[in-house]
Automatic annotation (TrEMBL):
Organism: Lentilactobacillus kisonensis DSM 19906 = JCM 15041
Protein's UniProt name: ComE operon protein 2
Cofactor(s) it depends on: Zn(2+)
Active site residues per record: E82 (proton donor)
GO biological process: one example: pyrimidine nucleotide metabolic process
């Protein structure tokens, strides 16, 4: 058994919420958006069924290469991480009904509507990001569980990265 400094028993494994959120953070590292890197993981029955990050349509220019394509202050080139994850499910025939999503940032209004229509029952997010009041109203209306996840250095320390490094 492993004990904390206070003498409490510490679980060797990270908790599920932190595990899935770390996956979303890892996906965010693939983002091609210069303004905000976002990752999303769709989970059902403690199994990842899809993941996504914000970036361009496959084959199109990437914002990190040619700059953002802004219209009215919004980049129209970027597909949001949540949408990419939902589209992955559609492409490969995986139902999202009753699933939950782990996303690094609170979903925008359009992504919130899409998630609700796709049957997502729980939205787990790491950071607040322009939390839209109408999105929050819809989440309450549809009785969706909203869960703000915390990631701490202690959570990160439980992952033995050193054991997997090549150098």
């Amino acid at each position: 058994m492993i004990y904390t400094m206070e003498g409490e028993i510490m679980d060797k494994r990270i908790k599920w919420d932190q595990y899935f959120m770390m996956q979303a953070v890892l996906l965010a590292s693939r983002s091609t958006c210069e303004r905000l890197s976002v990752g999303a993981v769709i989970v059902r029955d403690k199994r990842i069924i899809a993941g996504g990050y914000n970036g361009s349509v496959a084959g199109d220019d990437h914002c990190i290469d040619v700059g953002c394509y802004l219209v009215d202050g919004h980049c129209v080139r970027t597909i949001h991480a949540e949408m990419n994850a939902i589209l992955q499910c559609a492409k490969f025939g995986e139902s999202t009904d009753g699933a939950e999503i782990y996303v690094t940032d609170f979903p925008c209004l359009q992504c919130t509507k899409m998630l609700l229509q796709a049957g997502i029952r729980k939205i787990n997010y790491l950071r607040n990001y322009h939390n839209d009041s109408y999105a929050q109203k819809l989440i309450q209306l549809k009785d969706i569980t909203l869960n703000k996840i915390n990631l701490t250095q202690s959570d990160m320390d439980r992952v033995p990265f050193d054991a997997y490094l090549s150098d």
